[in-house]
Fold these 4 entries.
Entry 1:
Amino acid sequence: MKILISIALVVIVAAVIVISGVLPGHDGILAKRKLPDGTVLLVAQKQSTSDLGYEVGFYFKEPSKPWGWCYLAHDDTAWQHGSIRIDPESNIVTIW
Protein backbone atom coordinates (compact mmCIF):
# COMPACT_ATOMS: atom_id res chain seq x y z
CA MET A 1 0.00 0.00 0.00
CA LYS A 2 2.85 2.41 0.84
CA ILE A 3 4.35 1.82 -2.62
CA LEU A 4 1.05 2.71 -4.33
CA ILE A 5 0.74 5.90 -2.28
CA SER A 6 4.34 6.83 -3.10
CA ILE A 7 3.77 6.22 -6.81
CA ALA A 8 0.55 8.24 -6.76
CA LEU A 9 2.31 11.11 -5.00
CA VAL A 10 5.13 11.12 -7.58
CA VAL A 11 2.61 11.10 -10.43
CA ILE A 12 0.66 14.01 -8.90
CA VAL A 13 3.81 16.09 -8.31
CA ALA A 14 5.04 15.39 -11.87
CA ALA A 15 1.63 16.37 -13.31
CA VAL A 16 1.63 19.66 -11.39
CA ILE A 17 5.13 20.49 -12.64
CA VAL A 18 4.24 19.68 -16.26
CA ILE A 19 0.89 21.49 -16.20
CA SER A 20 2.30 24.63 -14.58
CA GLY A 21 4.83 24.93 -17.40
CA VAL A 22 2.35 24.19 -20.17
CA LEU A 23 -0.79 26.09 -19.23
CA PRO A 24 -1.07 29.46 -20.93
CA GLY A 25 -0.49 32.64 -19.03
CA HIS A 26 -2.48 35.77 -19.60
CA ASP A 27 -2.26 38.92 -21.66
CA GLY A 28 -1.94 42.06 -19.61
CA ILE A 29 0.07 44.06 -17.14
CA LEU A 30 2.48 42.06 -14.97
CA ALA A 31 3.94 44.96 -12.99
CA LYS A 32 3.23 48.67 -12.61
CA ARG A 33 4.99 51.54 -10.81
CA LYS A 34 4.18 55.22 -10.66
CA LEU A 35 7.02 57.53 -9.71
CA PRO A 36 6.61 60.69 -7.63
CA ASP A 37 7.11 62.85 -10.76
CA GLY A 38 4.12 61.13 -12.43
CA THR A 39 6.13 58.78 -14.68
CA VAL A 40 4.34 55.45 -15.20
CA LEU A 41 6.32 52.20 -15.71
CA LEU A 42 4.69 48.97 -16.91
CA VAL A 43 5.75 45.43 -17.76
CA ALA A 44 3.16 43.80 -20.01
CA GLN A 45 2.84 40.62 -22.04
CA LYS A 46 0.63 39.44 -24.88
CA GLN A 47 0.41 36.19 -26.73
CA SER A 48 2.65 36.25 -29.77
CA THR A 49 0.98 36.46 -33.17
CA SER A 50 3.08 33.45 -34.20
CA ASP A 51 1.53 31.30 -31.41
CA LEU A 52 5.04 30.43 -30.27
CA GLY A 53 4.80 32.07 -26.90
CA TYR A 54 4.51 35.52 -25.40
CA GLU A 55 5.93 38.93 -26.20
CA VAL A 56 6.99 40.89 -23.12
CA GLY A 57 7.70 44.60 -23.13
CA PHE A 58 8.59 47.45 -20.81
CA TYR A 59 6.47 50.57 -21.32
CA PHE A 60 7.04 54.00 -19.85
CA LYS A 61 5.22 57.32 -19.94
CA GLU A 62 6.63 60.56 -18.64
CA PRO A 63 4.21 63.43 -18.01
CA SER A 64 3.38 65.35 -21.22
CA LYS A 65 5.31 62.85 -23.39
CA PRO A 66 4.19 59.90 -25.53
CA TRP A 67 4.50 56.30 -24.37
CA GLY A 68 7.88 54.64 -24.87
CA TRP A 69 8.64 50.93 -25.23
CA CYS A 70 11.60 48.59 -24.74
CA TYR A 71 11.80 44.96 -25.82
CA LEU A 72 12.18 42.35 -23.07
CA ALA A 73 11.32 38.98 -24.67
CA HIS A 74 9.52 37.24 -27.53
CA ASP A 75 8.42 33.65 -28.12
CA ASP A 76 8.90 33.24 -24.37
CA THR A 77 6.93 31.19 -21.89
CA ALA A 78 4.25 33.12 -20.06
CA TRP A 79 5.50 35.24 -17.21
CA GLN A 80 3.26 34.60 -14.20
CA HIS A 81 4.24 37.88 -12.52
CA GLY A 82 6.75 40.68 -12.77
CA SER A 83 8.38 43.28 -10.60
CA ILE A 84 9.86 46.73 -11.20
CA ARG A 85 12.52 48.07 -8.86
CA ILE A 86 14.04 51.54 -9.17
CA ASP A 87 17.37 52.60 -7.71
CA PRO A 88 16.70 56.24 -6.72
CA GLU A 89 20.40 57.18 -6.78
CA SER A 90 21.25 55.87 -10.26
CA ASN A 91 17.71 55.94 -11.77
CA ILE A 92 18.30 52.38 -13.00
CA VAL A 93 15.18 50.26 -13.43
CA THR A 94 15.49 46.54 -12.71
CA ILE A 95 12.78 44.20 -14.00
CA TRP A 96 12.23 40.59 -13.04
Note: The two ends are 44 Å apart (CA to CA).
Entry 2:
Amino acid sequence: MENARQELHAKFETALGHLEVEADQKEVEIESMQATIDKLGEQLYNLEDENDRLKEEFDKVKEEEGAERDRLEALTEALKEVCCFHFLSIFILILHSESRPISRTVAANDGRV
Protein backbone atom coordinates (compact mmCIF):
# COMPACT_ATOMS: atom_id res chain seq x y z
CA MET A 1 0.00 0.00 0.00
CA GLU A 2 2.88 2.32 0.74
CA ASN A 3 4.24 1.58 -2.74
CA ALA A 4 0.89 2.42 -4.31
CA ARG A 5 0.75 5.66 -2.36
CA GLN A 6 4.29 6.61 -3.41
CA GLU A 7 3.54 5.65 -6.99
CA LEU A 8 0.38 7.75 -6.92
CA HIS A 9 2.29 10.61 -5.34
CA ALA A 10 4.99 10.35 -8.05
CA LYS A 11 2.33 10.41 -10.79
CA PHE A 12 0.74 13.41 -9.11
CA GLU A 13 4.09 15.23 -8.93
CA THR A 14 4.77 14.43 -12.59
CA ALA A 15 1.32 15.67 -13.63
CA LEU A 16 1.76 18.80 -11.49
CA GLY A 17 5.17 19.41 -13.12
CA HIS A 18 3.61 19.16 -16.59
CA LEU A 19 0.84 21.57 -15.57
CA GLU A 20 3.39 24.06 -14.23
CA VAL A 21 5.37 23.87 -17.50
CA GLU A 22 2.18 24.37 -19.53
CA ALA A 23 1.17 27.29 -17.30
CA ASP A 24 4.60 28.90 -17.81
CA GLN A 25 4.29 28.39 -21.59
CA LYS A 26 0.79 29.92 -21.55
CA GLU A 27 2.09 32.88 -19.55
CA VAL A 28 4.85 33.45 -22.12
CA GLU A 29 2.24 33.26 -24.91
CA ILE A 30 0.00 35.72 -23.08
CA GLU A 31 2.89 38.16 -22.56
CA SER A 32 3.80 37.87 -26.24
CA MET A 33 0.20 38.45 -27.29
CA GLN A 34 -0.08 41.42 -24.90
CA ALA A 35 3.05 42.92 -26.45
CA THR A 36 1.50 42.43 -29.90
CA ILE A 37 -1.75 44.05 -28.73
CA ASP A 38 0.18 47.00 -27.29
CA LYS A 39 2.14 47.38 -30.54
CA LEU A 40 -1.04 47.23 -32.65
CA GLY A 41 -2.71 49.73 -30.31
CA GLU A 42 0.17 52.16 -30.84
CA GLN A 43 0.00 51.65 -34.61
CA LEU A 44 -3.75 52.28 -34.52
CA TYR A 45 -3.23 55.46 -32.52
CA ASN A 46 -0.61 56.66 -35.03
CA LEU A 47 -2.86 55.81 -37.98
CA GLU A 48 -5.75 57.74 -36.41
CA ASP A 49 -3.48 60.76 -35.94
CA GLU A 50 -2.32 60.48 -39.56
CA ASN A 51 -5.93 60.14 -40.70
CA ASP A 52 -6.91 63.28 -38.78
CA ARG A 53 -3.94 65.16 -40.25
CA LEU A 54 -4.87 64.06 -43.78
CA LYS A 55 -8.50 65.10 -43.24
CA GLU A 56 -7.38 68.55 -42.08
CA GLU A 57 -5.04 68.85 -45.05
CA PHE A 58 -7.81 67.73 -47.43
CA ASP A 59 -10.24 70.27 -45.94
CA LYS A 60 -7.63 73.02 -46.28
CA VAL A 61 -6.93 72.13 -49.92
CA LYS A 62 -10.67 71.92 -50.63
CA GLU A 63 -11.15 75.37 -49.08
CA GLU A 64 -8.23 76.81 -51.06
CA GLU A 65 -9.59 75.30 -54.28
CA GLY A 66 -13.02 76.80 -53.54
CA ALA A 67 -11.45 80.22 -53.03
CA GLU A 68 -9.44 79.82 -56.24
CA ARG A 69 -12.58 78.73 -58.12
CA ASP A 70 -14.43 81.81 -56.83
CA ARG A 71 -11.52 84.04 -57.86
CA LEU A 72 -11.39 82.51 -61.34
CA GLU A 73 -15.16 82.85 -61.78
CA ALA A 74 -14.95 86.53 -60.81
CA LEU A 75 -12.03 87.00 -63.21
CA THR A 76 -13.97 85.26 -65.99
CA GLU A 77 -16.95 87.55 -65.44
CA ALA A 78 -14.72 90.61 -65.41
CA LEU A 79 -13.06 89.51 -68.66
CA LYS A 80 -16.46 88.91 -70.24
CA GLU A 81 -17.50 92.43 -69.28
CA VAL A 82 -14.26 93.93 -70.62
CA CYS A 83 -14.51 91.97 -73.85
CA CYS A 84 -18.17 92.89 -74.22
CA PHE A 85 -17.40 96.57 -73.56
CA HIS A 86 -14.48 96.45 -76.01
CA PHE A 87 -16.63 94.77 -78.66
CA LEU A 88 -19.42 97.33 -78.17
CA SER A 89 -16.94 100.20 -78.36
CA ILE A 90 -15.54 98.90 -81.65
CA PHE A 91 -19.04 98.25 -82.96
CA ILE A 92 -20.12 101.82 -82.09
CA LEU A 93 -16.99 103.22 -83.73
CA ILE A 94 -17.71 101.22 -86.87
CA LEU A 95 -21.31 102.37 -86.93
CA HIS A 96 -20.28 105.93 -86.31
CA SER A 97 -17.62 105.85 -89.03
CA GLU A 98 -20.07 104.36 -91.53
CA SER A 99 -22.61 107.06 -90.84
CA ARG A 100 -20.17 109.96 -91.52
CA PRO A 101 -20.17 111.43 -95.00
CA ILE A 102 -17.29 110.40 -97.26
CA SER A 103 -15.96 113.95 -97.53
CA ARG A 104 -15.61 114.19 -93.74
CA THR A 105 -13.93 110.78 -93.65
CA VAL A 106 -11.46 111.79 -96.35
CA ALA A 107 -10.71 115.06 -94.60
CA ALA A 108 -10.27 113.32 -91.27
CA ASN A 109 -7.80 110.85 -92.81
CA ASP A 110 -5.68 113.56 -94.54
CA GLY A 111 -7.00 112.65 -97.95
CA ARG A 112 -6.75 108.88 -97.49
CA VAL A 113 -9.93 106.91 -98.07
Note: The chain has a mean pLDDT of 87.
Entry 3:
Amino acid sequence: MTFAIITRTSHTIPGDERSRTNPGHGYPEHTVDSIEMTEFPTRDALIKRLEMHLKVNPRYLDNRRIIEFTDLQINSHITVEIKTPDTPPIDMREAGLHRL
Protein backbone atom coordinates (compact mmCIF):
# COMPACT_ATOMS: atom_id res chain seq x y z
CA MET A 1 0.00 0.00 0.00
CA THR A 2 1.02 3.56 -0.66
CA PHE A 3 -0.05 6.58 1.36
CA ALA A 4 -0.57 10.17 0.28
CA ILE A 5 -1.53 13.60 1.51
CA ILE A 6 -3.92 15.41 -0.83
CA THR A 7 -3.70 19.21 -0.50
CA ARG A 8 -6.32 21.57 -1.92
CA THR A 9 -5.15 25.11 -2.63
CA SER A 10 -6.42 28.17 -4.46
CA HIS A 11 -4.50 31.12 -5.81
CA THR A 12 -5.89 34.49 -6.78
CA ILE A 13 -4.59 35.85 -10.08
CA PRO A 14 -4.90 39.64 -10.11
CA GLY A 15 -6.54 41.31 -13.08
CA ASP A 16 -4.69 43.69 -15.33
CA GLU A 17 -5.11 47.48 -15.35
CA ARG A 18 -7.49 47.47 -18.33
CA SER A 19 -9.99 45.24 -16.50
CA ARG A 20 -10.03 47.65 -13.55
CA THR A 21 -10.34 50.89 -15.52
CA ASN A 22 -12.47 49.56 -18.41
CA PRO A 23 -14.87 46.85 -17.28
CA GLY A 24 -15.33 44.12 -19.88
CA HIS A 25 -11.81 44.56 -21.28
CA GLY A 26 -8.50 42.97 -20.37
CA TYR A 27 -8.09 40.06 -18.00
CA PRO A 28 -10.22 40.14 -14.84
CA GLU A 29 -9.09 38.86 -11.46
CA HIS A 30 -9.80 35.15 -11.03
CA THR A 31 -9.07 32.23 -8.75
CA VAL A 32 -7.28 29.03 -9.78
CA ASP A 33 -7.98 25.92 -7.71
CA SER A 34 -5.46 23.09 -7.63
CA ILE A 35 -4.86 19.74 -5.97
CA GLU A 36 -1.41 18.44 -5.04
CA MET A 37 -0.62 14.88 -4.00
CA THR A 38 2.46 13.97 -1.96
CA GLU A 39 3.12 10.21 -1.88
CA PHE A 40 4.74 8.20 0.91
CA PRO A 41 6.02 4.64 0.41
CA THR A 42 5.30 3.58 4.00
CA ARG A 43 2.94 4.41 6.84
CA ASP A 44 5.93 5.39 9.00
CA ALA A 45 7.09 7.97 6.44
CA LEU A 46 3.59 9.49 6.38
CA ILE A 47 3.40 9.65 10.18
CA LYS A 48 6.85 11.23 10.41
CA ARG A 49 5.83 13.98 7.94
CA LEU A 50 2.53 14.60 9.74
CA GLU A 51 4.23 14.87 13.15
CA MET A 52 6.73 17.36 11.75
CA HIS A 53 4.03 19.62 10.25
CA LEU A 54 1.55 19.34 13.13
CA LYS A 55 4.18 20.49 15.66
CA VAL A 56 4.55 23.75 13.70
CA ASN A 57 0.93 24.15 12.57
CA PRO A 58 -1.86 22.37 14.49
CA ARG A 59 -4.28 23.23 11.64
CA TYR A 60 -2.10 21.55 9.00
CA LEU A 61 -4.81 19.01 8.12
CA ASP A 62 -7.60 21.60 7.64
CA ASN A 63 -7.26 21.64 3.82
CA ARG A 64 -5.69 18.19 3.42
CA ARG A 65 -6.87 14.60 3.21
CA ILE A 66 -4.89 11.44 3.89
CA ILE A 67 -5.47 8.47 1.62
CA GLU A 68 -4.22 4.92 1.31
CA PHE A 69 -4.15 3.39 -2.15
CA THR A 70 -2.81 0.59 -4.29
CA ASP A 71 -1.23 1.26 -7.66
CA LEU A 72 -3.18 -0.39 -10.44
CA GLN A 73 -1.53 -2.46 -13.10
CA ILE A 74 -3.18 -1.79 -16.42
CA ASN A 75 -2.61 -3.99 -19.43
CA SER A 76 -4.10 -3.02 -22.76
CA HIS A 77 -4.13 -4.84 -26.04
CA ILE A 78 -5.33 -3.49 -29.36
CA THR A 79 -6.31 -5.80 -32.16
CA VAL A 80 -7.25 -4.54 -35.60
CA GLU A 81 -8.78 -7.06 -37.93
CA ILE A 82 -9.84 -6.19 -41.46
CA LYS A 83 -11.91 -8.64 -43.43
CA THR A 84 -13.08 -8.27 -46.99
CA PRO A 85 -16.03 -10.04 -48.53
CA ASP A 86 -15.45 -12.77 -51.09
CA THR A 87 -16.52 -10.48 -53.91
CA PRO A 88 -14.04 -9.01 -56.40
CA PRO A 89 -13.13 -5.31 -56.13
CA ILE A 90 -15.16 -2.79 -58.13
CA ASP A 91 -13.51 -1.48 -61.28
CA MET A 92 -14.09 2.27 -60.96
CA ARG A 93 -13.86 2.84 -64.73
CA GLU A 94 -16.40 0.13 -65.54
CA ALA A 95 -18.78 1.51 -62.93
CA GLY A 96 -18.40 5.04 -64.38
CA LEU A 97 -17.12 6.42 -61.10
CA HIS A 98 -13.69 7.50 -62.29
CA ARG A 99 -14.97 11.02 -63.06
CA LEU A 100 -16.29 11.73 -59.58
Note: DSSP finds two helices and three strands in the chain.
Entry 4:
Amino acid sequence: MVATLYTGRPSPGHVPCESTRTGTGVLRTCNTDGMRSVADQLRQDTRERVGRLSVPERIELALSLGRDDLSLYMRATGKHRDDALRDLRAQRARGRTHSGAAAPEQ
Protein backbone atom coordinates (compact mmCIF):
# COMPACT_ATOMS: atom_id res chain seq x y z
CA MET A 1 0.00 0.00 0.00
CA VAL A 2 1.37 3.41 -0.93
CA ALA A 3 0.35 6.21 1.40
CA THR A 4 0.43 9.70 -0.01
CA LEU A 5 1.13 12.65 2.23
CA TYR A 6 -0.54 15.24 0.02
CA THR A 7 -3.89 16.11 -1.39
CA GLY A 8 -4.29 16.95 -5.05
CA ARG A 9 -1.42 16.81 -7.49
CA PRO A 10 2.00 15.65 -6.33
CA SER A 11 4.90 18.08 -6.31
CA PRO A 12 7.77 17.42 -8.76
CA GLY A 13 9.99 16.05 -5.97
CA HIS A 14 7.30 13.88 -4.40
CA VAL A 15 8.50 10.48 -3.18
CA PRO A 16 5.79 7.92 -2.44
CA CYS A 17 5.97 6.26 0.96
CA GLU A 18 4.89 2.79 1.97
CA SER A 19 2.97 2.25 5.20
CA THR A 20 3.04 -1.04 7.07
CA ARG A 21 0.91 -1.80 10.12
CA THR A 22 2.86 -3.10 13.10
CA GLY A 23 1.72 -4.16 16.54
CA THR A 24 2.39 -0.70 17.91
CA GLY A 25 1.28 1.51 15.03
CA VAL A 26 2.17 2.33 11.45
CA LEU A 27 5.70 2.16 10.09
CA ARG A 28 6.21 4.52 7.16
CA THR A 29 9.20 4.09 4.88
CA CYS A 30 10.11 6.29 1.93
CA ASN A 31 12.62 5.77 -0.84
CA THR A 32 14.67 8.96 -0.72
CA ASP A 33 17.68 7.80 -2.77
CA GLY A 34 17.02 10.41 -5.45
CA MET A 35 16.57 13.29 -3.00
CA ARG A 36 19.28 15.73 -2.00
CA SER A 37 19.43 17.19 1.46
CA VAL A 38 19.61 20.90 2.20
CA ALA A 39 23.02 20.31 3.80
CA ASP A 40 24.32 18.67 0.61
CA GLN A 41 23.14 21.65 -1.44
CA LEU A 42 24.73 24.15 0.99
CA ARG A 43 28.06 22.26 0.89
CA GLN A 44 28.04 22.28 -2.90
CA ASP A 45 27.17 25.99 -3.03
CA THR A 46 29.96 26.79 -0.56
CA ARG A 47 32.53 24.74 -2.52
CA GLU A 48 31.57 26.52 -5.74
CA ARG A 49 31.61 29.98 -4.13
CA VAL A 50 34.99 29.41 -2.43
CA GLY A 51 36.36 27.87 -5.63
CA ARG A 52 35.75 31.15 -7.46
CA LEU A 53 37.83 33.12 -4.93
CA SER A 54 41.42 34.07 -5.62
CA VAL A 55 44.16 32.74 -3.32
CA PRO A 56 44.44 36.02 -1.33
CA GLU A 57 40.65 36.07 -0.93
CA ARG A 58 40.67 32.48 0.35
CA ILE A 59 43.38 33.33 2.87
CA GLU A 60 41.40 36.36 4.07
CA LEU A 61 38.29 34.20 4.38
CA ALA A 62 40.17 31.62 6.48
CA LEU A 63 41.61 34.32 8.74
CA SER A 64 38.23 35.99 9.20
CA LEU A 65 36.62 32.65 10.10
CA GLY A 66 39.34 32.14 12.72
CA ARG A 67 38.72 35.62 14.14
CA ASP A 68 34.99 34.91 14.27
CA ASP A 69 35.58 31.62 16.11
CA LEU A 70 37.90 33.28 18.63
CA SER A 71 35.33 36.01 19.23
CA LEU A 72 32.56 33.45 19.78
CA TYR A 73 34.75 31.48 22.18
CA MET A 74 35.63 34.64 24.12
CA ARG A 75 31.95 35.57 24.49
CA ALA A 76 30.92 32.04 25.45
CA THR A 77 33.60 31.65 28.12
CA GLY A 78 33.88 35.27 29.29
CA LYS A 79 37.66 35.15 28.80
CA HIS A 80 39.92 37.85 27.43
CA ARG A 81 41.75 37.37 24.12
CA ASP A 82 45.08 36.13 25.52
CA ASP A 83 43.43 33.63 27.88
CA ALA A 84 41.12 32.38 25.12
CA LEU A 85 44.04 31.91 22.71
CA ARG A 86 46.00 30.04 25.39
CA ASP A 87 43.03 27.73 26.02
CA LEU A 88 42.49 27.03 22.33
CA ARG A 89 46.18 26.33 21.69
CA ALA A 90 46.32 23.94 24.65
CA GLN A 91 43.15 22.21 23.48
CA ARG A 92 44.59 21.82 19.98
CA ALA A 93 47.85 20.40 21.36
CA ARG A 94 45.96 17.88 23.55
CA GLY A 95 43.94 16.73 20.55
CA ARG A 96 46.97 15.80 18.49
CA THR A 97 48.20 12.25 18.39
CA HIS A 98 51.63 11.19 17.28
CA SER A 99 51.87 9.11 14.14
CA GLY A 100 53.27 5.63 14.54
CA ALA A 101 54.75 5.93 11.05
CA ALA A 102 56.75 9.00 12.07
CA ALA A 103 58.06 7.48 15.30
CA PRO A 104 61.81 6.77 15.35
CA GLU A 105 62.77 3.12 15.05
CA GLN A 106 64.01 1.44 18.20
Note: The mean pLDDT is 78.
